[in-house]
Amino acid sequence: MRSFNGLLTAYWRSTSKREAWTLAIIIAVMSWFISKVGIWMAVAAGEFQNAQATYQNPGNLDPWRTFQAAAVALVAMVSLSVAATAVRHLFSETLHRKWRAWLNEQFTEATLQEGNTILKIQSNPGLDSIDQRQQECLKSLAGNAIGLAMGIMTVATAVWEVSSKLWDISTPIKGMAAFGGGAGFVLTLGVILPFALLCTWGFTRIGTVMRGVNKRFMEAEGAFRSELNTMFRRAGQITASNGEKVQKKVNQTLYTDIDHVWHRNNLLQASFMGLQGFYNMLSFQVIASVLALPAYAQGAIDFQTYVTTSALIGQLTNGFSWLINVTPAIASLKADAERICEYAQEIEHAQDTRAYFRATGVHDFQYSAQPATDGIRIRGMELMHAGRAARPFLSAPELHFPAGSWTALVGQSGAGKTSFLNALMRQQDYGRADVSLPEGPRPFYACQTARTPDLTLKQLVAGSQDEDDFEDAEIAAVLVEAGLGKPAFLRALNEKACNGRPWERALSGGQKKRLILAQLLLHRPSTAFLDEVTAGLDPQAQAEFYAALKKACPQTTVISVIHNRAMPVLPDGKPVYDHVAEIDAGRLWLRRFSAGTALQSAAEPQRKAIPAA
Question: Do β-strands 497-498 and 501-502 pair in parallel, antiparallel, or remain unpaired?
Fold first, then answer.
């Protein structure tokens, strides 16, 4: 799905192809039937108008009955056309829904597979508005593609059916004796084809410009929506810091870009609609009537046949110039396809992690599994930024975190603490290292900023696992143990809100930290990486957090970022951590820690890493 053709054909070659082709065939048959009904409706319209024109004709012995029969026939054909169109619409929307669901599943599977694909593609600043590409662009592409395909089927069947009917009623025309009875048909095609093709070429030039404007409009919309999402997530910080004025300016700047592109798009749309209206009036009203006039003028056909012929010529003109009417849809389809293909190409590119990052820098991480009793081992770590000539901002020749040890990771802001944890979790972009992690499930990771998405409390505690794997009583027990056993919380365990407020607002900052503790108590991981998870808690709350975790997970190997040099202690006064990993001047040093031992200052040069066991 990295190309336009591949994107449009993948579904029809997938394991869902039987379903796709069945719906497509039904839609094709319905399109052919609608074309047939269009012929019948043109004939019925001719009879109806003729009944009106000859109502007072002396030769019409029963004008009311004739008029009534013609009206009933026309209403019946119109009703049949409406019903057939509605049925086709139902099947086409079903196909749209299933095709979009399949596309969404493919992209979701590709971005959320192992290998941190979603994290890699987010690191590319050129790939804007990923959510828009997967949501709106996929929906629009599937809908426009189906609409265009239906249009092509309808046009093909209509042109064939209308041409056949016009050939049947074609008559000789003076000056065109060489064509015999097909003169009327030849005259019609001789005028319609060059006229329609020339106009279509002109309108497609406009469509090329519209495609570029549509793509730019989507980019501007995506940037604005991304900022809105960020704004709503940061609503508390914005209001607390009186940042509304600055946020308004940011929003206005982004919306001004939308407004500018929207204005260009409106000008194009208005110009297109004006030209299209003129073309339709000229082709359906003037040309259709004029082309049927020679046979009528020389008496070769009667008025009823003239009306029918004019209507059929209008339909034929519409068929040949169908591309004109769908130019905006084609422009939108191409714009959507370009953005989706860029997305798909980036996903494909990200599959080879080494090649992906080596294109812009150094990436040489080796990961292996070892027995849980061996803890974590790291050799030759050098973390860098992008660029082949980039120098390491953090290095650690050899480190060993013993199984069951608790290590405090300390260092100045920006020293690389979070980057170090990212490297252990295979999420560091640039650098090199040989990392051996305990075999089994991936390490548990929790960051300082606790997010509570729109989920139930039970789902929030279950985290990355299916909440159905746990009993409500089991979840309630860890909530109580983590200090979140309020009756209101337990009653709303399977709800997305508590007391009318979503959990994002129902839980305080400290309670969100306790939610992390509840997750740890539930999963009891063998390895846990904690990034300042107790920041903002008072000393007593911190002590309770660590005491509960140590009691429930005595064998867990923990590496935890702390933001100050004051080592936390348990309620009994014992230190929480037995090791310290300190980043100083770009080097990471690991040593044992005991109560009464102060962290070394940056000025002390002598440090010894714990040798590998």
Answer: antiparallel
C-alpha to C-alpha distance for 338 and 350, rounded to whole angstroms: 18
Q: Which of 89-103, 169-183, 339-353, 577-591 bottoms out in mean pLDDT, i.e. has the lowest? A: 169-183
Residues 6+ apart with CB under 8 A from 82: none
Residue 267 has, within 13 A of its CA and on its CB side, a CA count of 8
Distances (CA, A) of 302 to 53, 166, 169, 374, 552: 12, 15, 11, 99, 96
For residue range 191-230, list pLDDT tens digits in order. 777 877 777 777 777 778 888 888 888 888 888 888 888 7
Hey, CA dihedral for 66, 68, 71, 75, is it positive or negative? negative
pLDDT-derived band of residue 612, with 50, 70 and 90 as boundaries?
very low
Q: Which CATH superfamily is domain 353-443+525-613 in?
A: P-loop containing nucleotide triphosphate hydrolases (3.40.50.300)
Structure-token pair, residue 191: 């005028």
Task: Sketch the domain layout of the chain as residue ranges.
Answer: 4-351, 353-443+525-613, 451-517
Q: Are 406 and 560 in contact (CB under 8 A)?
A: yes
Confirm if 470 and 458 have CB atoms less than 8 A apart: yes
Is the pLDDT higher at 285 or at 351?
Answer: 351
